[in-house]
Amino acid sequence: MRSPREPGEPPPQEAECVQLKVPIIQQLYHWDCGLACSRMVLQYLDHLDNDEFQKAIQELRLTKSIWTIDLAYLMRHFGVKHKFCTQTLGVDKGYKNQSFYRKHFDTEENRVNQLFAQAKASKVLVEKCTVTVQDIQKHLSQGHVAIVLVNAVLLLCDLCSSPVKYCCFLPIGQKCFCRNPDYQGHFIVLCGYNTASGSIYYNNPAYADRTCCTSIRNFEEARRSYGTDEDILFIYTDS
Ligand SMILES: [Zn+2]
User: Fold this and answer.
1) Which domain holds residue 148?
2) Domain of life of the organism in this record (predicted)?
């Protein structure tokens, strides 16, 4: 629906270039990119309290397997206005045979499906819908951010010299799981775009010192890859 306009008033222009100042927080382990993204978002909203964050992780019983629905519950816990868009309300059975998901699939399936079932009663906003790049750009142009699930195998930053995967930043002694060449679920935080150059800016929790940049085409490929369910968690600053 269009917003009402006064006659003669020019149509609202969407900014050509948006770069939001989203703080960069690096993940600590191979499994906590989603938590690092949540911390970036909460700090951006000035809602981050480390003790409260730890408490929330315990209360929501977040383990080493973090799904996008978990991040939506985390936002709800902090009273942050959000909308989680996905293609699958629950767990896609087809993932059972993918090595990234295989481990503990059945217990995870129950847990995640239950979170989806209880979402409405828990005031967690989930919608099955398709999101376009234009929707994302409009959201960013209003100063809001988003956490996106991508296939890290496909996402290639234009600025980083080599496509280093985040699990190569593991603390010494931890096992890297770069072995699967097809799919590696990874969360990133979107923080801007440039329509002239066709780029999208994002914070990759694998890095502590940079905002990354890729073409909209590459971003779309990584975001819509099989395995992501096209999950995107929109976050609104007016929360
Ligand atoms: Zn980069």
Assistant:
1) 17-235
2) Eukaryota
In angstroms, what is the span from residue 176 Cα to ligand 1's centroid?
20
The pTM assigned to this predicted structure is: 0.87
Judge whether residue 63 has pLDDT over 50: yes
Domain-embedded: residue 80: yes
Any domain includes 44: yes
Q: How many A from CA of 33 to the centre of ligand 1? A: 15
- Cα 64 to chain centroid distance, Å, stands at 16
DSSP string, 68-124: HHHHHHHHHHTT--EEEEES-SS--GGGGGSHHHHTTHHHHHHHHHHHHHTTTTTT-
- Ligand 1 centroid vs 160 CA: distance in angstroms? 4
Report CA(103)–ligand 1 centroid distance (Å). 29
Q: Between 129 and 1, whose confidence is greater?
A: 129
Total structural domains within the chain? 1
> What is the Å distance from ligand 1's center to 192 Cα?
14
Q: Rounded mean pLDDT of the chain?
A: 87
The verdict on residue 90 lying in a domain is yes
Ligand 1 center from residue 132 Cα (angstroms):
23
Residue 214 lies in a domain: yes
